[in-house]
Amino acid sequence: MCSICGFVNFKNKSAVSIEIAQKMGGVLEHRGPDQQGIFANQEVALQHNRLAIMDIENGLQPMTRAVDGKYYTIVYNGEIYNTPELRKELEDIGIEFETNCDTEVVLYVYIVYKGDCASKLNGIFGFVVYDHFEHKVYIARDRFGIKPLFFAKVGSTFLFGSEVKSLLQHPDIHPRVDKEGLWQLLYLAPNKIAGTSVFKDILEVKPAHHGYFSGETLELSPYWHLEAKEFDGSRAEAIYNTKEILTDAINRQLVSDAPLATFLSGGIDSSIISAVGAKHYKEKGETLHTYSFEYEGNKESFHNTLFQPQRDDEFAVYLAHFLGTHHTILTASIDGITNLLTPAAYFKDAPGMADIDSSLLYYCKQVKKSHTVALSGECADEIFGGYPWFYREEMLAKGFFPWIHDPHKRPSLFKQEVVCAKEGFEFMQDLYAKSLASCPVVDGESQSMRQSRIGTWLSTNYFMTSLLERKDRMSMATGLEVRVPFADHRILEYVYNIPWEIKFEGNVEKALLREAMKDFLPEKIAKRKKSPYPKTHNPKYEQFVIEVLQERMLDSNSIFSHIIDRKEIQELIECDNVTWFGQLMSKPQLIAWLIQLDFWFKEYNIELV
């Protein structure tokens, strides 16, 4: 896992600068602390920072190979889980490999299959291949956007980078935020619209998209899309096939030349991954390492809710003992999560999920001390139907994204003439309507099946992408690679078409997943009610963020202090609580988000346009 960046200009050779490419790569070294490399000529400058996972000695990038006298150079960020099959396929047609790393496999897949390259890959990736002979570059991103890839175009120059901050190092790219970017922050964040960033003129390669830049033209198109089909199997077949596909996905992602562990909350998703991993390791005569997370003071301050009915620690320790793993409990202090609030916003290039981000950043820092790779349970809820909007019709009927409980709360904290809140809300309502209309369905199917498809469609295109982005940025900030086995496109393709009555059998969320994987888990875990990523309940955290926000409101040099509605923010500070996003984001997180926003305005020298 790594970072890539660079720029391409086939028209103006004086535009290519090694110094600028090095500066762009310099702000991304946290993603690849092991090795740095650069390739440059009169047309391109490609920079790479490497986090060594596979074939640690020989996988240096940028990597160049020649076939039939034609040269190709790749910069690549990712992991390919069907590497063994692809390697054999290429060897059978005469390709001779110099390394055991997947980078070389991806490069040869492109050389041999050209535009069919991305569709042959099962994995997480963002990469660019420079074709020296054809004078063009090929760009591709994985199906779910697990690995990031941003770009911008200035005149005849095409720029790209794993994070926005690298593009901002180029002298012709500026940190401007227009109304649509501001609306994304106030109405959608931490979600965003696919293919965009909150920065004007900085875009991202959409998930499952690829294409070419040649001459002065960039052409991107989808190479994969989700299809709705009639399900012609039985309940037993659905259970068996789900188990086979998921187990295969997990086992493929347990391959690493660097130390590997799993995140284990004791919830159903992370428990499945850890159980399969523990079995895999035991068969090799080894012991899997697992980690669970806790917060200082939570034992005394925890209060259960509909979304978070139980604390995780009892279940995580119980399962670790059951599986025989080497288990570590990491406890984040209040200072630990508050001190990392602004670094978390920096690594995300925008305000995110406040202490939900900063705590993950803290935990990843600790895990990195002993391990370089970890597996995590994201994406199961979005694919298997773990959220209430999958089965509560009224949540989809309100005309706005169902996980955003109060879309007007954040905009109300700012001067309305600045944020144009009414216009912004209408823009987002239209976006929501278009998202519903684009959902793949089958004519004549049941209302419950239609609702479950819409729930999956919205969740995977918005909610899931924000969780994947969070996981990527916070983990890669520490040089830790986190893999997400549930985000295997084969799982989504299959489960999307299974009848809702099987997925929600007995009115139990993720019933199909529980039934398919029950042989790996004790009953106490297999039947545990869903519980999300943990957050702090310590009242000291709320007190701290209120004090910091009040201080920041006094800074007359800050954009933030000039656009806020002080009366509304004071009412927020004095209110008992407000839940405004998902399962975790309540009053302390909203206040902390405002602190991140203020930091972001200053750190990035944001211009509102």
Please tell me about this protein's structure:
By secondary structure, the chain is of the alpha/beta class. The chain is 41% helix and 17% strand. Strands 2-3-1-9-8-11 form a six-stranded antiparallel β-sheet. A six-stranded antiparallel β-sheet has the order 4-5-6-7-12-13, covered by helices on one side. Helix 2 packs across helix 3 (102-113) and helix 6 runs antiparallel to helix 18 (489-495). The protein starts with a strand and ends with a strand. The mean pLDDT is 94.
In a few lines, what is going on in this structure?
The protein is of the alpha/beta class and 609 residues long. Helices cover 41% and strands 17% of the residues. The strands form 4 sheets. A 6-stranded antiparallel sheet has the order 2-3-1-9-8-11. A 6-stranded antiparallel sheet has the order 4-5-6-7-12-13, covered by helices on one side.
